[in-house]
Every structure is written in structure tokens, then in C-alpha cells.
């Protein structure tokens, strides 16, 4: 399968690297408007293939036509948050970027599945849905798994257990409106309410909601891109 990654910043480049390492596709197209950036990062990832033992082909490009016939496109393009900004502060700028990208995708890769990563995630997924005209099952946002991962990690740290022992999920939007569900959270099958008091649970729930902002606060420029 041919997979497109739109945006060669930290999120896009990391996404392309992980796709290559896991050989999820035969070919990756890393697209960005900045000349030289996708080409350089694509080459850097490709040169790691003998060490990481993968044979995925990687092409860095500035030409949207290279997304032609992609089976999956991951949209990471747009500006990132800075300290003090909410995800919603990115809305106007990133809606224009994502809208333009998705119009190209609809034209050159009409059968693709679109996965949006750009913030504000829920709004950008809606933009992608409208601009591509694709059926809803082919336009998805990735945030639920990220919010759930943060929630599980914080619980594992609090209880000093493996993240693999924590079963949990988070509903709602990717932002302040997300809803971690302690009632359905277990650790090795034990309800979390039997292991932590309500104060500790509330603190972890709030840290989950603030998870992205916490990382932005540390980085000062840019936002999370490994998770």
C-alpha cells in the first residue's frame, strides 16, 4: 500500500518513521510545502533502514500530485500550539491548510482513508470530511487513542504498574471536553476506585485533559509528537 503523510514537521516525520519501521505500507510519500524539508527527512529515515531492518520506500516531496493513489493519507500539516494557546486558537489558520490539503487528496487519491492529526482535531476532522466529500467511515481523527494512552500512562505511574495492566478509555473531544471514564477503568481487572481515592482519580483525570498543554509548556515551541 502507498501511504501519504502530509506535513514533514515533528509529527509528520515521526509518523513516517514509525510507518516505515513497522512496514505498514510499501511506499511512503512525505509531503510538505517547505522545500528540502520532506526530502531531507525522508532521506534520513530511509538511511536508517539497514539498522531498523525495513524495506519501505520513502519519497520526500513538495508536489501534492505525488499523493496519487495513496490508500491512506495522514494529515499533520498546520501550525502547532505555543505555551498559553488552546487548540482552538489554531482553528482559522489550520482549517485553511487542512482544507486545501484535503481538496488535493480528494482529487488525486479518491479512494483513500484520511486520518487527521492536525489540531484542533475534532474541527479539522470535520473540515476533512467536508472538503473531501468522502463517506464518514473514511475520514477519522486519531485523538481518542492519544488521550486514552495518556490516561493509562498516568494511572500506571501513580500505581507503579505496567501500562499493559491498565484498561481504560476516554470519550469526547480532543481538548478540555474530553471525558476519561474512571467507572470503566481497571488495573489487572480491579476497578481503579478500589486502588485510588477519588482525589487521586480526579487529579489524574485533570492531568489527562491537560496532557498536551503540559508538554507544550515544557517544550516552549512546538507540541507533542511521539505520542
Quick structural gist:
This protein is of the alpha/beta class and 227 residues long.
Roughly how many Å is the radius of gyration?
19 Å
* Poorly predicted tracts of residues: none
CATH superfamily of the largest domain: NAD(P)-binding Rossmann-like Domain
CATH architecture annotation of the largest domain? 3-Layer(aba) Sandwich
Strand order of the largest sheet: 3-2-1-4-5-6
Overall mean pLDDT stands at 93
Percent of sequence in beta strands: 15-25%
CATH topology type of the largest domain:
Rossmann fold
Q: Structural class, please?
A: alpha/beta
Biggest sheet statistics = 6 strands, parallel
CATH class of the largest domain: Alpha Beta
| Overall strand count | 11
> Approximately how much helix is present in the residues?
40-55%
Number of helices: 8
Question: How does this structure look, described?
Answer:
The longest helix is centred in the middle third of the chain and has 18 residues, at 91-108. The chain is an alpha/beta fold and 227 residues long. The mean pLDDT is 93. Helix 1 (10-21) packs parallel to helix 2, helix 4 runs parallel beside helix 5 and helix 6 packs antiparallel against helix 7. The relative contact order is 0.12. It is built from eight helices and eleven strands. The chain has helices spanning 10-21, 37-47, 49-52, 91-108, 121-132, 143-159, 198-209, 211-219; strands at 2-6, 27-31, 57-61, 72-75, 113-116, 139-141, 166-167, 170-171, 179-180, 186-187, 190-191. The strands form three sheets. Strands 3-2-1-4-5-6 form a six-stranded parallel β-sheet, with helices on both faces. The chain folds into two domains: 2-141, NAD(P)-binding Rossmann-like Domain (Rossmann fold, 3-Layer(aba) Sandwich); 144-219, L-2-Hydroxyisocaproate Dehydrogenase, Chain A, domain 2. The protein is globular, with a radius of gyration of 19 Å.
